[in-house]
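Slide 14.
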Amino acid sequence: LIAPIFVYEGWQEEYERLLEQLAKTLDPTATDLTFELITHRYTTKAKNLILSRNPESELPMVDEERKYKYGQFGYGKFVYPADIYAEVKSFFEEKIKQYLPQAEIDYLV
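Slide 15: predicted structure.
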């Protein structure tokens, strides 16, 4: 499980280092290795709670930089827009195949 996945300047290099380290650590013969990848998302309620408890928070929660999406449980949340999501998806598919070719991605949200 890699979560939450944040997109910021230099994010690709840091997540690549993580995958490289995992490749060095995990058994290369494992055949049941799977990944669950979860991008950063937030609800208005969660954002307000975080900011009320920690007004200095630097979590990236700028509504205008996100896409509003209704979730499966009937509430809305702010997610990365389609172009950023596609970039994250492409990156992790490529790098997981490079560093851990035996692994499967169960899902990416």
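Speaker note: Strands lie at 2-5, 34-39, 67-70, 76-79, 104-108.
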